[in-house]
Amino acid sequence: MRIFSALPLVLAASMATAQQNPADFPLDAVGYLNEELPRMEAAIAAKDRGFFHDAMARTVEFSDRWGFKVKANPELAAYPMCTSAVMDYVVVGMCKLTPGDDACEPGLAARFDGNVRRCREIAARK
Fold first, then answer.
1. Which of 17, 89, 115, 123 has most Cβ atoms within 10 angstroms of its Cβ?
2. CA-CA distance, 68 to 11, in Å (whole number)?
3. What confidence tens digit (pLDDT) does each residue in 49-101 have?
4. Which has the closest alpha carbon to 36: 79, 84, 88, 89?
5. Angstrom distance (rounded) from CA 66 to CA 23
6. Residues 66-88, buried b or exposed e (16+ Cβ, 10 A)?
């Protein structure tokens, strides 16, 4: 679980140069989460811990593509609900699989759900 608690640091350290239009980020983040969330729920139901290794790699790849939470694309600071939802996705899934882990802070799942909802709302306006 320690590796998953380091995910935000890994994402923050990503220094990819993003060339996309920042206004497209919410829609892309929602598309990513819409694809990943059902897969995560299936992995939780199957008690498939291995899923989360690949999910973390996909999440890092997504963040690299956009360069968020780094100087490469500071315009994404306008969409903290989307960056937070993407960054918290793997940790929330692991916490659903092993809820008693130390990395599973109270309120994380509710905060994640709220960020996903707000990100979807922003994306729907684009």
1. 89
2. 8
3. 999 999 999 999 999 899 875 556 788 889 999 999 999 999 999 999 998 88
4. 89
5. 11
6. bbbbbebbeebeebebbbbbbbb
The two tokens of residue 11 are 């994402």
Query: Secondary structure of the chain in the HEC alphabet?
Result: CHHHHCHHHHHHHCCCCCCCCHHHHHHHHHHHHHHHHHHHHHHHHCCCCHHHHHHHHHHHHHHHHHCCCCCCCHHHHHCHHHHHHHHHHHHHHHHHHCCCCCCCCCCHHHHHHHHHHHHHHHHHHC
Question: 92 with 108: CB under 8 angstroms?
Answer: yes
Structure tokens at 92: 């929330």
45 CB contacts (<8 Å, ≥6 apart)? none
The pTM of the full predicted model, rounded to 2 decimals, is: 0.80
